[in-house]
Amino acid sequence: MTPVTPPAAPRGLYAELHLHLGGAILPNILYSYLRRQPGHGLLKKFKTLDQFERVFARKHKSLPDYLEMHTLVEEIQRLHSLRYFIQKLVRGAVLFDNLAYVELRYTPFYRTDAHLDEDQRIRQMREVVETIADAAVSQPMYPLRLKQILCLHSRLSSKVNKATVELAAEWTSGVHARSGGANGGVCAIDIAGPDQLYRPRTREFIALLKLARSRGLHTTAHVYETATGLYPELLPHLDRIGHGIQLALKSPRLLKEVAKRRQCLEMCPTTYIKTATLRGYDDMKPILARCFDAGVSVAICTDNSGLHQVRLPMELENLLVRDIIDFHQMQACHHASFDHAFGWDGPSRDL
Length: 351
Fold this sequence. Notes:
Strand content: 5-15%
Helix content: 40-55%
Strand order of the largest sheet: 1-2-3-4-5
């Protein structure tokens, strides 16, 4: 029997904890794929690459306006095209982003066939997750540790969101339990979508977070990103906090509790400018200073590195050269991304 060659160890320097599938691919790659689908409806709306790229380059009025970008990309990244895009993502992450580890998040329901009914789409979600898991390890020449985070969504039904948790849990306690810790598997759930829609559903989301933890999953959520996303009742049920910048701006008294729970904040500076949440990078300085003073760990992330065309090393450099953080603080953020990763089992890497 020919011995199986173990996968090469990742050689990159960085860990990316907050990357959306819908924002991980460069617009020109998305459009190149579209042009090979001559009947695709988006080609009628965007006749040139320049028209298509302008959608992603502009500043947005608000988070809901910004999220429409993801709705557009989801029309392209469906089940039939996922393997292609994941392979592009992995190659770029290794060659250009210098990543050793990435947690890729997305809502599986929105990658299913939109022509199916809800029950059929729920069943197809499993194929979506398995396709991504398989594609993540299909190019051994690009060694990358990749884990999936499945997103619940504030616009989806309770039935779909619960099915998403159950599907994620299969990778820790069900049919995929043996491979859940392997490269490409599922490690956590997230809560995403317009945050003002969380309000009437917080009890439902808390129940799902508790269910996820009871099944061996990690938890994170998009909270305290905008002024409408302040949900202190969700915080005790999270292992990490997606964004969390409003904790420093609106609820600094909660920072000590966050530090005590060892909850790392996943901060994505470029996103806050794109969504008009902050005016510019300089607005990050008091936010980060308050977090550091309170002992809160912060991981710098990209959120949507492809659509923003800002890679993770550049996010860190943007903060450093503007004197928003010093080199020791940058190192601390870099180490936090490895220390608080849900699926990285090695030591942190030094810059």
